[in-house]
Amino acid sequence: MISVRVRIPVAAAAIFLLAFGSVAQAASSIRGEITYVGTDGNIYYCYANCPDPKCITCKAAAIHVHRDDTHDHMIVPVVDTLPEAGPAASGTEYEWPTFSPDGTRLAYSSETHKTAEDSYAVWVYNFARSQATEIFESRTDRIVYMVWLPDGQQLSFLLGDPRGLSLVLAEVKESTPVRIVTTGMPLYFDWGAAPGEVALHTLALDSDRTEQVSLMSLTPTSQSVVKVLSSGRTPFKTPAWSPDGKHLAYIVNNHAESNIIVADADATHPRSVVSLPVGENSLVWAPDSAHLAYATALTAEDPTYHGIKLVDIATANSKWLTKDDVTAFFFAPDSRHLAFIGVPEDKPYYSWAVVDVKTGVQKALGNFLATPDESTAYHYFDQLAVSHTIWSPDSSSFIYAGVRLIGAPEHALGYSPPPSAWIVPIDGSDPHQVSDAVLAFFSPAK
After folding, report:
1. Domain residue ranges in the chain
2. Rounded CA separation 144/39 (Å)
3. Where are the beta strands (DSSP E) in 114-220?
4. CATH fold for domain 14-442
5. What is the DSSP letter of 383?
6. Portion of the chain with pLDDT greater than 70, in percent
7. Model confidence over 179-198: pLDDT tens digits?
8. Are 17 and 390 spatial neighbours (Cβ–Cβ below 8 Å)?
9. Peptide bond preceding 186: is omega within 30 degrees of 0, i.e. cis?
10. Which of 17, 87, 193, 326 stands 20 to 30 A from 244 (CA)?
């Protein structure tokens, strides 16, 4: 996963009629816990109606753990003065909050820019202890993206430098040694339910520049590629295990024909379930593990998909969910609905809609401008599907950060206010404005 230039209009652009202030909705109807990155560069956490969001990176809002040489190198909590909101301290900005699978902890990255040197770090915040622990720091490599392993005891993250990306694995403990799993550019991955099992899609950084999809196995003392699933040009991003861990989906390209392959969890018994048109493809598992949503864009440079289809992996039968142009799509936890971002023709804004997977009924849920952070998330939505969710655990609503528009105006009328996190009920009732934010997610835990 790498940063690219994306088409989604951002909140700093000239825009139209805007949705200012809070909007009417009964806060009690919203369920689930959320995290968001504020416009001040800090990480916040709250229950979805957010009457009193907690800043977990503001000064002394969390207990930061330090090594104290006066106490025989023991780890002791140190609290500075009182919590302070406002801009992140010491030139530090925080990014990519990522809930653990059980929702009890939150991983996030930090960037500190000073005159003498820069610093990049990975932190894990424990909600029960109100404690943040630094588990990794680098003076050179930026943290691009993070994924918890299914056991919740290890965290993986991508490090980026001008030469490429490195996939790193770390235990969720302070100052423990980290492990470099592989390098590549691009580099997409998903961790399996079995310990030490990872599916990879990489383009090697060596002189051969070999692109391949493979399975790797890791033990405490070794690691190796156990099976190559595809080699050569592969027009998709992320191989992914089904949520129940029984199947692995990926795309192969043979003689200019691309196919979605569904295999057993160990990559045995592969079979084609979809023959794809020429282009760049994305696929996302439904939480029921029985269906895949997929879409094709003409080129990798223009991330506009021309409709979304759903395939039943047992029968290999596909149907259209929408024929609209879209740029990202997201399954609800109950698998009944799919939210997607539409691309209105010749309009400098984007739209939210939701489609009922069973009936095919589609509902428009408003127009918006995205923040740069959200734009990056949307471009890599199929990779983020294995680590983040925009949906509430009860599938009643989803969250995004941006500038909400009223209607579909034809002409720009002014400049945008600060972007906000918005919770959008899929029943069509009014969205709930949370707070100023540039990136927002729900916790996957119920």
Report:
1. 14-442
2. 19
3. 118-126, 131-138, 142-148, 154-161, 164-171, 179-184, 187-191, 197-203, 211-218
4. Neuraminidase (2.120.10)
5. H
6. 84
7. 999 999 989 999 999 889 99
8. no
9. yes
10. 326
